[in-house]
Amino acid sequence: MKKEWFGLGRSSSVVQLKWVFACVLIVSMLVPVQMYAAYRLVTQNYTSDINVFYRASALHTNLGQCDEAMASYLRSGNRASLARHNEGIAEFKQNLEQLAPYCTSAQELSLLRSIKDAFYSYQSRCNFAAFSLAENEAARGYESLRDAQTISEYLGGYCSALLDAHIAGCYHRSAVLTRVLKVTLAVQCAALLLLGGLVAIGIYSLVGNLDHPLARLYEVCLEVAQGNYGVAVPEAGGDSTMLLLARTFNTMTGSIRRMVSDLEEKKNIETQLLNEQLKSVQYEKLLEQAHFLALQTQTNPHFLFNTLNAISRTVTLGRGEEAVGMIGSLAQLLRYNLQDATTPATLAEEMSMVAEYLKIQQCRFPDRFRVVLDYSEPDARRVYLPRFTLQPIVENAVLHGLEPKLGPGLLQVTVCRLPDGWHEVRIRDDGPGMAEETLRRLTSGQDAGTVGQVNAIGVFNTRRRLEIFTQCRDVFLIESRPGEGTLVRLRIPPGQPELLPPGKNREDHHV
Question: Residue 346 — very low, low, confident or very high, per pLDDT cuts 50/70/90?
């Protein structure tokens, strides 16, 4: 198998999008991490520089406070001045200790040691001056004060030199930081370019794997809608989802070709039977059975053509997933219809096909109507009726009852068991309803055509098939009034009935 996308083999568009999203997520996480690291570096350097400038300035302030307080003490002998001097000494020591962690270069460490040594000498001379004043030796005290002030000037020079040395280091660190920021900016630009490249690759992959196959599928759908069932969608290459869609579509067109061939064959058989003279009751029964089969197969082309047009429009609008769902539902209906037409269907099967049909219609008319299906599946499995009996009635309710309605509509399909064992299927819509004349023509068959016409599709068709199947006349009832919607009631006998010869009907079943 050909390898694509990081050696993982042929991937669908969803898998490719997941890989693109993962790469975008990783790049999006790396860029903020790098920016945070650069921010931390800038913040740490800024904090270090501010602390050094503040502590170095504080040393100058402390020395001035100590000199002034000691001179005041020697002049006045006020012990408050001596306390202020001692306070300045303590603050000087504290600032000196807090400054030590930020002095990292050899020059800064050497100046820091010189400040410490000079400060010890300064403190010693100040203490001796205070002691001399206490011993009434003021001359010696002033001499010690002058020595302390001289040392204070040296200390001030050392502090200024320390500040100058740190400023020089700041220039160096600033240059290094500038280079780091430039590298960070380059990395971010590269990450953005990589991100843009990944997005471009993802878009190109989607266009290549989805857009072109969908365009081809759209063209083939148009040809099928025009009656050309010999076309097929290429199944080689492309996205796995599109391959599945192409196979499903080709299977559907093959089923349609077989169905059309069977329909033509059955039509020919029906024409031959109608042109011959019926010579016996058994021959009449065979003719009626052929008529029944022909009526049953007429429903399919009408519905298929409508559905293919809907799929074509859905693909045109770019709703590929909905088109796949509609094709899947149509495939279910085709598989159901390709079963033996002489075998009756259970009511549960018919309700299941109604659900598939309504899925297709709700894709065609989203948010236009709501569906309620209410029936007991175990009971429905024991009730039989002709295949494709319910779908034409439901289709009529959707197209002529709910579609013309301005607002959202409601379609209810309910199955209930009657006291005499029969089952009744009620199909109700809240559409505009029908006038009395329209209802009369519909129930009398004036709008349905004759048996020999292949396009005789509608309510009369379904009604006639059900009457032939049950051999009863009152199994199909329609109630409708303008503005009040339409109710169709189908009455189905229990068990599995068989076709009977003409003239031998079941007992009339009355409401």
Answer: very high
pTM of this prediction? Answer: 0.41
Question: In b/e form, how buried is each residue of 261-284, taking b as 16+ CB within 10 angstroms?
Answer: eebeebeeebeebeeeeeeeeeee
* pLDDT, position 511: 36
Torsion of CA 357, 363, 364, 366, to 10 degrees: 120
Of 333 and 349, the one with more pLDDT: 349
Return the pLDDT at 34.
Answer: 66
Token digits of residue 452: 């020999």
CA–CA dist 104, 100 (Å, integer): 8
* b/e burial code for range 149-187 (CB count within 10 A of at least 16 → b): bebbeebbebbebbbebbeebbeeeeeebeeeeeebeee
The string over 411-424, giving b where at least 16 C-beta atoms fall within 10 Å of a residue's C-beta and e elsewhere, is bbbebeeeeeebbb
Tokens of 142: 């002033």
Give pairs for 76-83: CB < 8 Å, separation 24+: 77/133, 82/130
CB 394 within 8 A of CB 427: yes
Tell me the range of 15-24, 207-216, 333-342, 408-417 where mean pLDDT is highest. Answer: 408-417
Section 140-158 average pLDDT: 82
By the 8 A CB rule, do 256 and 220 touch? no
Strand 409-417 relative to strand 369-374: parallel, antiparallel, unpaired? parallel
Give tens-digit pLDDT for 407-438. 889 999 999 999 988 999 999 999 898 888 88
- Which residues have a Cβ under 8 Å from the Cβ of 126 and sit 6 or more positions away? 66, 70, 85, 89, 144, 145, 148
Q: For 380-413, what is each residue's pLDDT tens digit?
A: 999 999 887 888 888 888 888 888 888 889 999 9
Query: Which distant-in-sequence residues (6+ apart) come within 8 Å of 220 by Cβ?
Result: 231, 232, 233, 249
- How far apart CA 170 and CA 172 sit, in angstroms, is 5
| DSSP letter for each residue of 130-196 | HHHHHTT-HHHHHHHHHHHHHHHHHHHHHHHHHHHHHHHHHHHHHHHHHHHHHHHHHHHHHHHHHHH
Residue 384 has a pLDDT of 92
Q: What is the mean pLDDT of the chain?
A: 76
Q: Per the structure block, which two tokens stand in for 371? A: 């569906």
- Residues 162 and 172: their CA atoms lie apart, in Å, by 16
Q: Write out the two tokens for 489.
A: 């009631």
Distance between CA atoms of residues 322 and 360, nearest Å: 9
Phi and psi at residue 157, to the nearest 5°: -65, -40
Confidence of residue 283 (pLDDT cuts 50, 70, 90): very low
The count of other CB atoms within 10 Å of the CB of residue 502 is 14
Based on the number of CB atoms within 10 Å of its own CB, is 317 exposed (0-12), middle (13-18) or buried (19 or more)?
exposed
The DSSP code sequence of 101-133 is GG--SHHHHHHHHHHHHHHHHHHHHHHHHHHHH
